[in-house]
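Morning!

As promised:
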Amino acid sequence: MFGEHFRGVTMKKPFVAGNWKMNTDSHSAVSLVEGVVSGCEETAGSKVDVAVCPPFVYLQQVGKALSSSLVALGAQDVYFEQKGAFTGEVSSAMLKDVGCTYAICGHSERRHVIGETDELINKKVHAAILGGLLPILCVGELLEERKANKTTDVVTRQLKKGLMGIGPEKMLAVTIAYEPVWAIGTGLTATPGQAQDVHALIRGLLAEMYDRKLAGEIRIQYGGSVKPDNTGELMGQEDVNGLLVGGASLKADDFVAIVKAAARAT
Ligand code: 13P
């Protein structure tokens, strides 16, 4: 596998993020993050980088609840303009202001439910970096695209267009998340081999677009029905450097178990 070229290039700390999507309320969001903070005390920041991405409206409260910990705060989206007449949108400056470190860009639900294009997502990646946030750029194919053997084409297009104009220095701020759409919320996880194949493809593309050393430093998360009991084998794959967790991040015990399993697997 391509990834072998990178073995030992750098010790990447695994990065596990919980994407809460449109879930929780003001009370449960705080108790969830409190559970994450206390469960990850030994691991967050030292063995694994850990982040939670609550809905916009709860960012501030959740940020307050994790402020004395090494668990980071992330947003599920960001708009590309800095301020002005953009009703309903939230800028990177605002996210930074409430304590965000990360911003998810181009999640498949935004691509396929809301209709975001690669061009829009690329603007968001630029805006996130410009605003001092670390973008998590999501890529991944639909089931019909996988069945039609288009996974490579789709992931290549999403990666190249999503990173258009991002030079090597800025690229160091970016995490890539491979989330096969057919594995999201379905209980169908990509096999470790399927995940590794696409992760190696992504790393190979990054090596072409930048260089091998830089490609070896970029963390590539896997997302799609990650659970405590499949974390070990997914994280055991050479090019899987972290996880973007949906459903299982809504239970503190499960998310903490995933973080601990990720720490053990590396
Ligand atoms: P699930 O873990 O619920 O499949 O969601 C994955 C995801 O979309 C994370 O961003």
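Residues 1-10 have pLDDT under 50 and may be disordered.

Hope this helps with the figure draft.
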